[in-house]
């Protein structure tokens, strides 16, 4: 690497580190879909996008909380253009209904931010009989992305941003026991779902590149951020540890949302890139390029998860036209 190349790279890193939501480009005319938009990272993301003129679809499981979130945003930014829509990612029927409703009113989606998640509940099954964390965090987002793919393909500078976690590096995909029927523990299955997010996003990038699609698949993680994912965790020990004892070390949701906002809006990002905080241990800080775990980047694992996800959701991506059901 030449001195000029080294200086350019250092300058880029510094610019990313200092990047804030104030630098989001004008979003007038753009359509964003944010899952889990009523609180935490999703609310911070939606607020930042709406402030810059974008139309933001707040995809939420609890519509009353979604409306309160919209009211909070418009109280600060009266010009905000917001739609609140019901979406239960753990129920594939709800995912299909959401996608059909969105298609009836929008000709395109410019950015889909797969942000919503659940963390460490006791073993619970989704409406279709899948382990809840795998269903809500991965399968629902896989199906949603596929069912909206024609709208994304029609978008301007279209992007899919999938939010994973530092915990994806701890995860293991239990292909022989995805639902935890034989051996379930809340946090390991959360880690599995976050690994699935990373594997999916990276495999989507490979397939988009191969197809020559204009859609880019990117990844982000928020480091350690203070959200109700931790404080509202159903398991008392998880709630105590992450939601209370370690909370003083967490960054605010507005800071934690910066990596996904950067992936969703910054000029010059490339498909397959993964953004997280630049501080020690990727826990806090401004956006930076971070690494995927070897398992997340393994093409064989990507293909296997993709095939399993198609089978479990009934959604098959056609990278040129509307997803088949």
Summarize the structure.
This protein is of the alpha/beta class. Helix content is 44%, strand content 12%.
Describe the structure.
The protein is an alpha/beta fold. The protein has a domain at 27-35 and 110-313: NAD(P)-binding Rossmann-like Domain (Rossmann fold, 3-Layer(aba) Sandwich). Helix content is 44%, strand content 12%. The chain is built from 12 helices and 8 strands. It has helices at residues 3-17, 40-51, 63-76, 92-105, 132-147, 149-153, 186-211, 228-231, 236-245, 253-256, 258-265, 299-313; strands at residues 31-35, 55-60, 81-86, 111-114, 159-163, 216-220, 274-277, 287-289. β2 (55-60), α3 and β3 form a beta-alpha-beta unit. It is globular and about 50 Å long.
The 3D shape can be described as globular
Contiguous runs where pLDDT drops below 50 for at least 5 residues? none
Strand content: 5-15%
What is the terminal separation in angstroms? 48 Å
Outline the biggest β-sheet: 8 strands, mixed
Percentage of helical residues?
40-55%
Overall mean confidence score, pLDDT: 91
CATH architecture of the domain at 27-35 and 110-313: 3-Layer(aba) Sandwich
> What sequence of helices (H) and strands (E) makes up the elements?
HEHEHEHEHHEHEHHHHEEH
How many strands appear in the DSSP assignment?
8
CATH topology of the domain at 27-35 and 110-313: Rossmann fold
According to CATH, the homologous superfamily of the domain at 27-35 and 110-313 is NAD(P)-binding Rossmann-like Domain
Q: Tell me the strand order in the biggest sheet.
A: 3-2-1-4-5-6-7-8
The CATH first-level class of the domain at 27-35 and 110-313 comes to Alpha Beta
Number of helices: 12
Radius of gyration: 18 Å
**Classification by helices and strands:** alpha/beta
């Amino acid at each position: 690497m030449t001195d000029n190349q080294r200086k350019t790279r250092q300058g880029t890193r510094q610019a990313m580190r200092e990047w804030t939501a104030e630098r989001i480009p004008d979003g007038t005319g753009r359509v964003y879909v944010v899952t889990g938009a009523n609180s935490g990272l999703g609310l911070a993301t939606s607020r930042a996008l709406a402030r810059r003129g974008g139309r933001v679809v707040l995809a939420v499981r609890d519509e009353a909380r979604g409306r309160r979130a919209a009211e909070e945003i418009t109280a600060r930014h009266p010009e905000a253009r917001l739609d609140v829509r019901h979406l239960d990612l753990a129920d594939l029927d709800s995912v299909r209904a959401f996608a059909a409703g969105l298609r009836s009113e929008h000709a395109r989606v410019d950015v889909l931010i797969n942000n919503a998640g659940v963390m460490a509940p006791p073993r619970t099954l989704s409406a279709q009989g899948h382990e809840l964390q795998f269903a809500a965090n991965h399968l629902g987002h896989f199906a949603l992305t596929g069912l909206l793919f024609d709208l994304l393909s029609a978008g301007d500078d279209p992007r899919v941003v999938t939010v994973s976690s530092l915990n994806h590096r701890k995860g293991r995909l239990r292909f022989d026991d995805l639902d935890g029927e034989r051996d379930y523990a809340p946090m390991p299955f959360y880690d599995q779902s976050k690994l699935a997010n990373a594997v999916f996003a990276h495999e989507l990038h490979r397939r988009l590149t191969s197809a020559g699609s204009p859609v880019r698949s990117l990844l982000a993680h928020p480091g350690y951020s203070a959200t109700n994912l931790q404080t509202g965790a159903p398991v008392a020990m998880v709630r105590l540890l992450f939601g209370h004892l370690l909370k003083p070390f967490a960054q605010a949701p507005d800071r934690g949302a910066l990596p996904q906002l950067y992936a969703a809006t910054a000029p010059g990002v490339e498909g397959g890139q993964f953004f997280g905080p630049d501080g020690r241990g990727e826990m806090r800080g401004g956006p930076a390029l971070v690494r995927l775990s070897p398992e997340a980047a393994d093409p064989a694992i990507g293909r296997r998860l993709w095939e399993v996800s198609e089978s479990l959701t009934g959604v098959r991506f056609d990278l040129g036209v509307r997803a088949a059901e």
